[in-house]
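Sequence only, no structure available. Ideas?
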Amino acid sequence: MSAEPSSAAVVAGAPTGGNRTFLAVLVNTAAANVTTSFLWFALTFWVYLETRSVLATGIVGGAYMLLLAVFAMVFGSIVDRHRKHRVMVFSGLVTLTAFLVAGALWLAFPESALLDLGGPWFWVFSAVILAGAVVENMRNIALSTTVTLLVPVERHANANGLVGTVQGLAFVVTSVFSGLSVGFLGMGGTLAIAIGLTLAALVHLLTIRIAEEKPAAGAEPGPIVDLRGAWRAVRAAPGLIALIIFSTFNNLIGGVYMALMDPYGLDLYRWEIDGRVYNAEVWGVVLAITATGFIVGGGLVAKFGLGPNPIRTMLWVVIGMGVLGAIFTLREWGWLFAVGIWVYMALIPVVESAEQTVIQKVVPFATQGRVFGFAAAAESAAAPVTSFLIAPIAAFAIIPYMDGDTGKATWGWLLGEGHSRGIALVFVFAGLFMVIAASLAFLTRSYRTLSLQYRTAEVNAEVVETGVSDAEGTTSSVPPRPGPDGDVAPSGPPPEVQRTVETTVGHTARADGHGDARIAPAAPDRGRD
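Reply:
I predicted one. C-alpha cells follow.
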C-alpha cells in the first residue's frame, strides 16, 4: 500500500455541519427507536393481559433478544457494504412494511383469532411485528458508525453520551405510554399510532443528507454474514477481543438482574387499595422514574466525556455497578431499591459509551459495521442466556433455601427479613462477581495493550473534513482506500510506537490471519476515487 496521503485529506476536525447532521440523524433514530419499542412493549403487555400466558409472553420476549443476536452480524455486514443513509432508509422501509402488514392482519381477523395461542394467526401477527422491530435495530449499528463519519474524534465520547441520553428517553416514554395506549386504545389504536410515527420518521429521514463515499466493501460481492471479515477486523486491534469478552461477561451478570428485577419489584411495590392490588401499575411508574437515570448518565457523558482512557473509566464504573448491585436489596426498602436502580441506570450509558468510543477510535471506519455487529451479537446473546439459567435456579433452589430456617439463620444478619430474600442473595453474589471481574481486568495485558492502542491510534484520522461542503452543510468523508481483500489495513499505533508496544506489553496482533505478526502497517493511501 502507498503511504502517501492526500494533501487535502488530513484536517484535524469534523466535517463542516457534521455535528448538525449527526444530531438530525440521532433525533430521527431516537424517534424510530421509541416507536418500535412502544409497539413491541405494547404487544407483550397485550398478549399477557389478554391471555395471562407467561409462556407466550416469554417466547415473544425471548425471540426478540435471540433474533437480535442472530441478525446483528448480518446488519453489520450490510452497514459496511452500503452508505449509512441508504441503510437507515432501507431499515425504515422494512419496519414500516412490517407494521402495515400487522395492521392489515388486525383488520382482516377478529381479535379472538389473533389471541388464539393454538392457532396460526397469533404467531404470524407476533412474528410480523417482531420482524419490523428487529430490522429497525440495523439503524443503531449505522448510527454508531456515523459518529466516526461526522463527529471529531475528541468528541466521540460526548456524541456517544447523547446516544445514551436518547435511549434513556426512549425507555421512559415506552415504559409509560405503551401500557397506557394498550389500556385506553387497545392494540388496534396502538398499531395505528406506531404506523403513523414510523411513516413520519421515514419521511424526515429522507430530508437528511449524509455525504459519504461509496463503501469499498460493497464494490465486490461478499457473504451476507462476513464473520471472517469481522473477526479479522476485531483481531487487528490488540486487546479489542478482550474488551468484547469483558462486555459479554458483564452482560451475563446483567442478565441476572434482567431476570429477577421484575419479580422483586412486583413483590416490593405491592399496593392494595379497596381490595385491589396495584403492584404492576406502581412498578411501571417506578421503572419510568428510575429510567431517567439513563438520561442523566448519558447527559453527563455528553457534557464531560469519558476522560483520557475510556477503558479505565469503564472498569471503574463497572466496579461501582457491582457494589451497587450487591447492596441495593440488602433490605426490603422501597426507597433503597428505587435509588439503586436509578444510579445503576445512570451508569449504563457510561459503560456503553466507553466501548463504542474505543471501537470508533481503533477500528477502521470501513469495517466498523461488522465489528459493532460482532460485538452486538455476542453481548445481546449473553443476558438472555443468564436469564434462562438463573430463573429456574432461583425459583427451585435459592428462594426455597432462603425461605427455610437454614437460609434465614445463615444470611439473616446480612439480608434481614422479607419475602424476596432469595432474590436479594442472588443479587449480592452477582454484584460481587462483577466487582472481582472488573478488578482483575486492570491486571491483564489486554487492558494495557488496548489502552496504549487507544492513545496512539490514528486509523480514522482522515475520515474528516476534505474541504467540500454540500448545500445542506454536510461534507463528503473519505474512508480509507481498501486493501486487496476489500478491507482496510488494521488499526494500530504508528511504526515508531510499535516497538514500545512489543517491549512494554509483550504483545503483537496477527492481523491478517497468515502468521505475520504486526501491529501497525504503513498508513494506506486515502483519497477520492
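Strands lie at 272-273, 276-277.
Hope that gets you unstuck.
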